[in-house]
Fold this sequence. Notes:
A: Rossmann fold, 13 helices, B: alpha/beta, 29% helix
Amino acid sequence: MAVALVANTPLLEVRDLAIEFPTRGGTVHAVNRVSFDVQRGEIVGLVGETGCGKSVTARALIGLTRSPGRLSSGTIAFEGEVLGGGSAPDWRRIRGSSVALVPQNAVAALNPVLRIGKQFENALRAHGRGGPSAMHAARDMLGRVGISDPDRVLRSYAHELSGGMAQRVVIGMATILAPRMLIADEPTSSLDLTIQRQILDLLSDLSRRESLAILVVTHDLGVVAQYCERVLVMYAGKIVEHGPVLEVMRAPAHPYTRALVAAIPVPGQRPTSLRGSLPDLVNYPPGCPFRDRCDMAVAECASVEPPLLPNGPRMVACHVVNRGSGGTARLG
Amino acid sequence: MEPLVSVRDVTKSFARGSSPIVHAVNGVSFDLAPGETLGLIGESGSGKSTVGRLVLGLQTPDTGQIAFEGRDLALLNSIELRRMRARMTVVFQEPYQSLNPRQTIRATVEEPLAIHEPEALRSERRARAEQALANVALDPSLYDRYPHELSGGQQQRVGIARAIVTEPDFVVLDEPTSSLDLSVRGQILELLADLREEYQLSYLLISHDIATVRYISDRIAVMYLGQIVEIAPAGGLVDNPEHPYTRGLLSSALSPDPNVSKAPIALQGEIPGSVHLPTGCFLYGRCPIGTLECTTKRIPLHRSSPDHEVACIKAPYAG
Lengths: 332, 319
């Protein structure tokens, strides 16, 4: 019974997560009661634009919320266990062995004054796996992330590596303790197009081979369409649409998702743009945060916050969209 | 018609202290006609931004010539070069970093006029700055604000207003939309397209993003390791790329349509550094169709059809 329960439990369960940043201008509500799950071995995209809260959400999942930010509500459970469970979670134990981070800028994330080998050794020692076997494990890992001359790389400093090579090293470091999940924060944004593909293929292979779940934080809808199974679309600290990539990218439902997909430049067509800007995250408006930029908004959108509701195979937080399809279904 | 900008056999390398010499630009030639937009695409280290700086006269080539309206930039004295700078301007990638944080938007846009037309009346400068700001559709309530109070898209509008306020003929756009959110990029591209009509501008658009370049360019040049490997009308280049590097670059773009499957990775490895240049074709080693001949022989751009030029031994020659 207990075994069956564990098998059905999502790998990661986020419930009502809210993160705020006290500033001189007031409290910034960066993430507003966000809930989602990630299953074992699944690649999930978390998309949105600057300031939508996607990176803040991702960093909170690994206990790296930047000061003075704090979790004001919600829970994060990993393999059914609520992290911390009331007290502060033991992030040092969780990080690396359960959930690991692949940062955006790999060269900057590496220590500039330590050789790569030493950095692997330090990471392993912190989890009680130091000693003579550490180098062996590091060499083996570098081979698995597609580095053909691991010994040279282990002797190198970060600045001696190309961007693609540094990203492979960072992915190797993130996965060496065999975590169940990777948080990849814009893993390829700083890389050239021809290298991006190589790194994304590597992440996708690792996911398949080692049943590794990956939450990919990205602003690139191409990455979502080609590498993710599910997508979470964030706007102003909320998830506005959530569902299988095949559904959401082909037929986006929420007006914001529609605008994002329509903004992708298509040869020969005028790209469309969103008017206006993000709402004030200090004085968070009542109702729908997207209403001022939305062509479909109705009176209700100004007063009632649209809940994230199932709509076919996806979830959408929009009064108009949900009423439209719900109404049709009832009438039909 | 005489080209507005003419670049001939330009090379540029950089040496810093005891560091090895970096060969950034290795023999680049192209012309830009008045009113034309040329897109320059390539990955980091391809030399595309260096070409932009050379064309603006911000750096001088080691060899080769760059001429603006037939006048070699290297032969201009500093006064003439300064005068020229009012007619060829630049929009940078990072709008915030290219604006003075202590200057209001209005003062930022007035500044080029104060430099280039010091004799103009203050009221006239102000009026022209406001006209430029109106032309980039920036709300007048923002004119007396500071850059940090503006969104990324608004900041880039200021950067563009600053570039057009002296009524130039030629603007270098160095990754003008790369730092902006997707939903704002379209607005900026449309604005650039509208201003091109209104001011009769020529653009050199430097970008790594094929869709951006395709949208606004008349012709596209593809750079790799400091060389142009292919140059053709935008549609022809994107629809029928001939150089294996162009093909690899285009096929590595990820479609936002999940039903379009990914093309297999065409280019192996990474762009080699620009310190030790290969003897033969620069792409040899990454190229899927390279042969032994390519290790020793590098061929220049040649016509493969009347308006398509390519630098690959495997590409057809057109009489």
